[in-house]
Amino acid sequence: MPINSYIFVAIALFSIGVIGVLTRRNAIIIFMCIELMLNAVNLLLVAFSKMHLADAANPALKVATNGADGQLFVFFIMVVAAAEVTVGLAIIVMMYRNTHSVDVNFLNRLKN
Amino acid sequence: MNAIILSAILGVVLMFSGIFVSNKVMLKNIAIAGMVLLLAVNIIEMNGFRVFDVNTRNMLQFNRFGLLFNSIAFAATLLYFLLSARDITRVGINVAEYFALIFFILCGVALVSSFNSLLMLFLGIEIISIPLYILTGSDKRNLKSNEAALKYFLMGTFSTGIMLMGIALIYGAKGSFSLDTIAATINQGRDAWFYAGLLLLLISMAFKVSVAPFHFWTPDVYDGAPTVFTSFMATIVKAAVFIGLVRLFDIIFATSGTDWKLMVAVLTAATLLVGNITAIFQQSVKRMLAYSSIAQAGFMMFALFSINSYSKEGIILYALGYSLATVGIFAVLVKMKDYTFEGFNGLARTQPVLAATTTVFLLSLAGIPLTIGFFAKYFMLASAVKSGSHLWLVFFAILMAVVSVYYYFRVIQSMYFKEGAAETEPVSSGFRWLLIGVAAVIILLGIFPNMVLQYLYF
């Protein structure tokens, strides 16, 4: 499969995530959309990694890397995303305990 | 390397001491001792001795600029601990964890000031951000704190997503995360991906340092977070992310040879305008300081605008001057009963030392001569003049610095020229002497800025 298909899928997932974050009002759904953005990046990184591996096999291109570090990066993103989920859900639960809602429209007490 | 490993170890030590030590004063003292150790170890590394010699495979690169900034950040944190540690212990019951999280943040700071690979930049930014989300929400029963934490968290992770997309596109174009490789192959290969990636990376970093138009979360978060932690967020963390941004610009943007200067100039002008104009209309000093931190970020943007030796000296001085003054002001602010401008009425009569030192800090932030703030602003503007293009930006920045004098002097006017009896928490004499010491350092460095800058070169 050509690399372009992967890029289209990844960009589409990323855009769905961005639009979700900007339009939805439920904190948990916003959070899911952010995770979608991160996973779109994971997909893109793995696809690029394979692309650079193919480039490395072609002696005419003379590339310096074989693309392994792209897949390595994906593991770091997963770990960081897990840490973010832990903190984020804790914050949302704390919020729910005080307001009995996870609607971000509640977040207007700080305006003046 | 010393600082990165030791700060992580100290964070773990403090977490465990939370189990074994229940005395708050003891925990505070452990944290202060740890901070002194961290600062000492970093200064030792500046002199060329590494306690932990780890081969980082060129993922991290330690130069004088980064190490000097680390020293400044650690010294500012030590000062912050000495001034405000007692207030940190009052935020909630998990005292040891607050100190531990601050040490973890410092680990991230040391990573961001020395990264040589986009992977390390990402990890450093995240190690800074995630503990900050927790500290912002640490006042669990307070709805404003909850709201600030959720807002900060959603904005922070959103910008992390954008940053990762940028890094992925750069990786697609260049096949490597290493800054050296990227800089060496700057005009080869898939340029469209590369520039799209750089733009996304710039946007996400602008989110993190609250550069307009990506600043909208800052006032709410700084206002809602417990005041002691706002102090840390607005100073050391902000300066650290700027240092990372300077490193990024220094290596990649400066060599990419595109017309990014106009874009940075527009961002700088927008930040200065939004920060200064909105700060005028605030009623609460805490919120005014939040907007003022946006305005100060506008001045720090000059370091990205003009990448030369002046701007590097400037950002170091700026980080130091801004951190000292703002940590001092927040330390006084925490002691106030009322955060509005009226709450400061007559402070000069009830607490003359606090009023006098706060005046020095505000003068430094406004950039009045004989304070370090003046030289910081001077170096920034001089670097822009030296770089030779977009001179309108310099005039605009001077105009905005004049505007900033208005809202800083409003506090001084309240303290000295208005009737009232400002109420404060009881203040110890040690706290007073420390404030006097900080004010003295600000004035001393305002006369001899080379006392810091010489360390950049020798």
Q: Can you offer a commentary on this structure?
A:
By secondary structure, chain A is an all-alpha fold. Chain A has 3 helices and no strands. In chain A, helix 1 (3-23) runs antiparallel to helix 2 (27-57) and helix 2 runs antiparallel to helix 3. The longest helix of chain A has 32 residues, at 68-99. Chain A is elongated and about 60 Å long. Chain A starts with a helix and ends in a 13-residue tail after the last helix. Chain B is mainly α and 458 residues long. Chain B has a domain at 259-458. Helix content of chain B is 76%, strand content 0%. In chain B, helix 5 (118-136) packs antiparallel against helix 6, helix 8 (191-208) runs antiparallel to helix 10 and helix 17 (372-387) packs parallel to helix 19. The longest helix of chain B has 32 residues, at 143-174. Chain B is globular. The A-B interface holds A 7, 10, 14, 17-18, 21, 27, 30-31, 34, 37-38, 40-41, 44-45, 48, 51-52, 55, 63-65, 67, 69-70, 72-73, 76-77, 80, 83-84, 87-88, 90-92, 94-95, 98-99, 104, 106-107, 109-111 and B 119, 122-123, 126, 130, 133-134, 137, 140-141, 143-144, 146-151, 153-154, 157-158, 160-162, 164-165, 167-169, 171-172, 175-177, 181, 219-220, 223-224.
Query: What oligomeric state do the depicted chains represent?
Result: heterodimer
Q: CATH topology of chain A, anyone? A: Helix Hairpins
Largest sheet properties of chain B: none
The major β-sheet of chain A equals:
none
| Strand and helix order of chain A | HHH
Q: How much is the average pLDDT of chain B?
A: 91
* Biggest chain-to-chain interface with counts: A-B, 48 and 40 residues
Low-confidence stretches of chain B: none
Distance between the termini of chain B: 19 Å
Please tally the helical runs of chain A, counting DSSP H or I stretches of 4 or more residues.
Answer: 3
Report the count of strand segments of chain A.
0
The radius of gyration over CA of chain A amounts to 19 Å
User: How many distinct domains of chain A?
Assistant: 1
**Helical percent range of chain B?**
over 70%
Keywords (chain B): Cell membrane, Membrane, NAD, Quinone, Translocase, Transmembrane, Transmembrane helix, Transport
Subcellular location (chain B): Cell membrane; Endomembrane system; Membrane
Catalytic activity (chain B): a quinone + NADH + 5 H(+)(in) = a quinol + NAD(+) + 4 H(+)(out)
Pfam families (chain B): Proton_antipo_M
